[in-house]
Structure formats: C-alpha cells, structure tokens
Amino acid sequence: MSIKIKILFIIIVLLVIIVSLLLGGKIAFKEQMVIYDGLRNTSAIIFAVMGAWIALLYPQKLSQAFGKKPYKEKSDDIDQINRLFRPMIYSTSILSIVIGMAFIVPLAKQVEYLIQFKEIFRALSFAVIAFLTMLQFWSLVLTLVPGDSIKDDLDEDKERQKMLARMRPGKK
C-alpha cells in the first residue's frame, strides 16, 4: 500500500475521531451501547473468519512456523502468519475495550461525582467508538489478504503451467 493512501487513511481517522469527540457529548450512552454491541459482534465474526482462514488454508504454515526449523527458514512463514493474525489482534483489542465499556459505564453512572461530567464522558466514549469503528474497518480490509494470497498463488501456478507447456518439445 502506498504511503499516500496510508497518510490519507490516518487523516480521515483523525478527522472522524475529532468530529466524534466534538459532537458525541449529546449522544446518550444508551445509544452508544448499541454501537458498541455492533462492534463486538463484528469483531467476533472477524476473529472467527480469520481463525478459520488460518486453520483451513494455512495449517502447514502454522506447523512450519512453530516447528523445529532454524529461525532463518521460519521467518517467511512467520511473516505470512503475522499478516493473517493482525485482524485477529485488532478484533481482540476491540472486544476487550467493548467488554470493558459494558462493565465500566453502568458502574460510573452510580458515582454521583461523575454525573456532572457525563457530557465529557459521552464525548470521550463516542471518540472511542469512532476509533474502534475505523480499526474495525481496517480489520475488514485485512480479511481480504488471505483471498488475495490464494489468488496470487493460483496466478503464479497458472503462469508456471503456461511456461512448462511452451517448453515442451513438439509444441509451437
């Protein structure tokens, strides 16, 4: 991915977070919890899908990466597995934050002193939602990596077959 696209994505993320922080103070926690629930469900699905990709399509990579080969031979396998684990790590982080918010918000509502700051907490919470949503979006994009890898492998195999066919005697 080009550096320009990454910078553009970071700018968009920052703008979304800032706007969410500025406008989120008026959005009740009850409404925000619905969004947190959606993030939790989507994260769980991404985690399951990526786990299935890894288990079904790359079992040999897992065994090679954690096998008894020297590290230099394992490094490529580890790099490929790390790319697959990224969405799972992001999803786990999102799940952890969402579960924590579901626990903390009801408790914080019981503390009289904090009630005077509820608009600030709502704004902060909505900024967290914005960040988690953008992270979730990125995780969804990263779920395309295994399919793209498979396509690349198939294209490479197809090219190899064409080259072998051209090299066979008697073929013109």
Labels describing this entry:
172 residues; mainly alpha; elongated
Give a nutshell description of this structure.
The chain is mainly alpha-helical. The protein has helices spanning 3-23, 29-57, 59-65, 71-108, 112-115, 118-142, 145-167. The chain starts with a helix and ends in a 5-residue tail after the last helix.
Account of the 3D structure:
The chain crosses the membrane at residues 7-29, 41-59, 88-108, 120-145. Keywords: Membrane, Transmembrane, Transmembrane helix. The protein has 172 residues and is an all-alpha fold. It has helices at 3-23, 29-57, 59-65, 71-108, 112-115, 118-142, 145-167. The longest helix is centred in the middle third of the chain and has 38 residues, at 71-108. It starts with a helix and ends in a 5-residue tail after the last helix. The model has no long low-confidence stretch (mean pLDDT 84).
Number of helices: 7
Domain unit count: 1
Please outline the major beta sheet.
none
- What is the 3D form? elongated
Question: Please, what is the average pLDDT?
Answer: 84
Strand content: under 5%
**Amino-to-carboxy terminus distance:** 40 Å
Low-pLDDT runs of 5+ residues are: none
> H/E element string?
HHHHHHH
Q: How much helicity do the residues have?
A: over 70%
Radius of gyration: 23 Å
Quantity of strands, as a count: 0
Which structural class do the helices and strands define?
mainly alpha
Secondary structure: elements and pairs:
Layout: H1 3-23, H2 29-57, H3 59-65, H4 71-108, H5 112-115, H6 118-142, H7 145-167
Helix pairs in contact: 1-6, 2-4, 2-6, 3-4, 4-6
